[in-house]
Amino acid sequence: MGDAPLPAAIKHLGQNFLIDPNIIRKIITLAELSLNDSVLEIGPGRGILTDALCQSAGRVTAIEIDPRLHAYLTERQTPFQNLTLVLGDAMTYPIEHLPLGTIVVANLPYYLSTPLLFRLLDQQHRFIRLVLMLQNEVADRLVAKSGSSAYGVLSLMAQYSAEITKAFKVSPQCFRPRPDVDSAVVLLRTKDRFEQMRENKESSSQQSYERPLRIAGRRWSIHYAIRDMIRNTSERHCQHFIYLLRYGQKTFLLRSSLP
Predict the structure, then answer these.
(1) 208: domain range?
(2) Are residues 152 and 209 in the same domain?
(3) Alpha-carbon gap, residue 214 to 234, rounded angstroms
(4) For a designed S-S bond to 130, which of 1, 52, 104, 144 qualifies (C-beta 3.0 to 4.6 A apart)?
């Protein structure tokens, strides 16, 4: 695979490289890949997961924001003709051009995991499932039940878009450098619900909630409206909530929870 030295981790990019081959095997098994599948990987790092993905899937697109890691992976790419390496930012990469039915398998940078997850779920019709390594606390919020202390914006939006399973925890010992927190791998199987949301956009949800937003016109007014809604969540409230987020130009997507 080449003799290039391993690039060191950069802290402000949230780089913690997975090193445990057993965890890699569990991720690949969970992803249920075949040679007919297209895979998106975000943050391939030093390539240990990338190698396994290329051996299991028909096509792998790996997006790396760090030029050093991109150069390292490019140098060692030769054995895998089914790998497309992209130097870029996953928050701006045109994921809408990926094939329908793409599977996302990624060890997401923890500092950016929530906005990345929302961006992926905004294209839920494109991705049939996502297997993601996340901070354990975030994984717990993803699967939290309504009324629990962990339940919030992240829980509501993600569960509206996908069936979510917390598959297994991952110790800091499985990374270099070791993160200060535990990690977990989650499986999200996306739902086909955006047509339903669009059909209801002009219904009572808009009539009930649009006027208060226009009166206040500020983020905190939306904030409290959403907080009140989460306290009494139902399928109908989920549709109202998603309308509010889109009406508010997604200013809440960077917030992982509400007080």
Answers:
(1) 195-247
(2) no
(3) 24
(4) 104
Shared-domain flag, residues 201 and 102: no
- What is the DSSP annotation of 191-220? ---HHHHHHHTTSHHHHHHHHHHHHH-SHH
The two structure tokens encoding residue 219: 């983020």
What pTM did the predictor assign? Answer: 0.78
Q: Could you give the 3-state DSSP secondary structure of residue 54?
A: helix
Tens of each residue's pLDDT in the chain, 259 residues = 446 678 777 777 778 899 999 999 999 999 999 999 999 999 999 999 999 999 999 999 999 999 999 999 998 866 789 999 999 999 999 999 999 999 999 999 888 999 999 999 999 999 999 999 999 999 999 999 988 999 988 998 899 899 999 999 999 999 999 999 999 999 999 998 554 455 445 444 544 444 444 434 444 444 555 555 555 555 455 555 555 555 444 444 444 444 4
Secondary structure element (H or E) that encloses residue 28, with its range: helix 21-31
Same domain, yes or no, for 131 and 228?
no
- 133 and 39 both lie in a single domain: yes
Strand segments, DSSP code E, in 65-212 are: 83-87, 102-107, 127-135, 162-170, 175-176, 183-190
The number of distinct structural domains making up the chain is: 2
How many helices (H) and strands (E) the chain has is answered by 10, 9
Tell me whether the omega of the peptide bond preceding residue 94 falls within 30 degrees of 0, making it cis.
no
